[in-house]
Structure formats: C-alpha cells, structure tokens
Specification:
Number of domains: 3
Bound molecules: (~{Z})-2-methylbut-2-enedioic acid
Number of helices: 15
CATH class of the largest domain: Alpha Beta
Strand content: 15-25%
C-alpha cells in the first residue's frame, strides 16, 4: 500500500474502533499527519485523560504511554510499537533513587517524565521540560534530587537558587550534539535564531538565543515572525514547525538529530496495532498508585 492508502486505512480503522491516536512531536511526519492530536509528553498525558474515547493508541515512546495509563486506568492505553523505549529513561533504576535519597535525606525528588514508572513511584513530583523550573521552584524544599537528566537538571540549576543533586543520565541525541557543528550552522545562517532543547549539553545551550521544550518552541516561533530558526532538537519537531509555519524558515542545528526509537513507528506497524488492538500498557497497581500521586502533583 502507498502512504496515502495506508493513512486512509488507519483513519478508517481508528474511527470504526473508536481509537483516539496521539502522536509525539518527534514522530515521523506521516504519523503526525494522521494523529488526532500531536504534542509534547505533558499535552499527550492531558489529552489521553480528557479524550472521551475509551481506547487510546500512542505513537511515541513507552514512558509516555505508561504515564497516560497510570492517569487513566479505566482506559485501554496502547502503544503502536512495543519496543519503542527511551535510552534516557533506561539509565536510572529504582535502586539509584533509593541510594540518592539515603545520601540526601532532606531533599525532595523531582523526576523528569522521561523515566520508568517504578522510578516515578519513588519520586515526590514529576516534571517535563515545559514546566521543570516552575515545579522545582514550587516544591517544598530548598534541596532537590533531580533525576534522571543531567541536561535539564544543569539548565534548571543555572536558573534557581535551590541546591540540585543531579543524576547523571542523558538523552544521547541532545546531550551528544556537537557544539562545533552547531557553530558551523550558525555561521551559515548568521541572522537565524538558535533554539535549543534543555536536554542539550551546556556548550550548545550557551550558543542559543532561546532554550525551551518543544511546546515552548512553537510559542517562540509565533513571537518572532519572519526569522530563520536553527532548531536544536529532534528532527520531527523541525518538520512539525515547518508544517505549522509554512512562511518561516527552519534549519536543523546539526546533520542528524534523529531519535531511532521515535522513528520505530511506521504506518504499517500502526495499522497492525490498531487492527489487533495490541501492545496494551499495564502497570502494577501498587506502583501505579504511588506514581499517580507524583504525576498528579505536576498537573497541580
Ligand atoms: O516532554 C516531551 O515531550 C519531550 C520529550 C520533549 C519536549 O520538550 O517536549
């Protein structure tokens, strides 16, 4: 089947079965095009809760579907590709959190949403890149254990007076982005605004005109019409911005900023998962109950 036939078939099956399709902004464009809603992890977890549909199919990575399943246990939450994981999330274990809590007994644990559900269950509150600073500021302690991302953690530490104890996990595509290559891209586009994700390493962030999560990038482009933007985050986001703002120019900060896990979703795999209603996410009830408290604190 060609792309548009596959897309029509996906829409048809989703409608027949009453399945709401959510896609992350890092998904391939042909997936974003057929989703009922495209957004960041915060938006997706809210949409999954608010949607009237009892069945949700996530085109994303696993921790995002797990978070939605914990927030909406009465719904059938599925993921298009079961093995779409997140290397950053996999860098931390519950034992690591227990160890840090022993070392810093007075600190509260702020956990980035890119983490396993068992780690969220040991945390006081969850955050995303869109709200991390706000969450750290309003957490009731001057001492924070920030897990698992050292990119986001070090960025927040530079913005707050609080003491942060930061776990050393990282997102390979953001943290390992080469600052020299970014400098070269800037030299080719001297009038462009460089926007980087806070998961990026400090050398890239220092070169940037603005640092924000993917939802913040949409706002930034809206607020700066008529400019060229160098985008330092996953390539799916650049494609989403191009689609949303056809009059603006976008350039990727380095050659290949592609998350292999986000790109595991294909139209063929999505169609099969919808037809068979497979890859249903299940979370152990005790863990889900503990994680829910931390996630709900984020939603306020
Ligand atoms: O929170 C998310 O969805 C991620 C992983 C990135 C972002 O900034 O939106």
């Amino acid at each position: 089947m060609d792309t548009s036939t596959l897309q029509s078939e996906i829409r048809k099956i989703a409608k027949e079965k009453g399945i709401f399709i959510l896609a992350h902004s890092y998904q391939p464009m042909e997936i974003q095009e057929i989703a009922d809603y495209v957004g960041d992890s915060l938006d997706l977890s809210k949409k999954a809760m608010e949607s009237g549909s009892k069945k949700i199919m996530f085109c994303a990575v696993k921790f995002m579907a797990e978070t939605a399943s914990v927030l909406s246990p009465e719904k059938k939450i599925m993921i298009a590709v079961e093995e779409a994981g997140c290397p950053l999330a996999n860098m931390i274990t519950p034992e690591d959190v227990v160890e840090m809590k022993k070392k810093y007994p007075k600190a509260k644990v702020v956990c980035y949403i890119n983490s396993p559900i068992e780690v969220k269950a040991l945390s006081d509150v969850i955050c995303t890149s869109a709200n991390a600073l706000k969450i750290v500021e309003k957490t009731d302690s001057d001492e924070i254990i920030f897990i698992p991302d050292q990119g986001l953690g070090s960025w927040i530490a530079s913005k707050t007076k609080k003491t942060l104890h930061i776990f050393n996990g990282y997102c390979p595509i953001h943290w390992l982005m080469d600052a020299d290559q970014v400098r070269t891209t800037k030299a080719y586009h001297p009038d462009a605004l460089l926007v980087s994700h806070p998961e990026s390493n400090p050398k890239v962030r220092e070169l940037s005109d603005h640092v924000c999560g993917t939802s913040g990038m949409i706002t930034y482009v809206k607020e700066n019409p008529g400019r060229c933007f160098i985008i330092a985050t996953e390539t799916g986001m650049k494609q989403r911005l191009e689609k949303m703002f056809p009059g603006e120019r976008f350039v990727l900060a380095t050659k290949n900023i592609t998350c292999p896990n986000m790109k595991k979703t294909t139209l063929e795999k999505l169609l099969e998962s919808l037809r068979e209603e497979k890859h249903v996410i299940t979370v152990n009830k005790e863990i889900a109950d503990r994680a829910r408290t931390a996630i709900e604190r984020m939603h306020g």
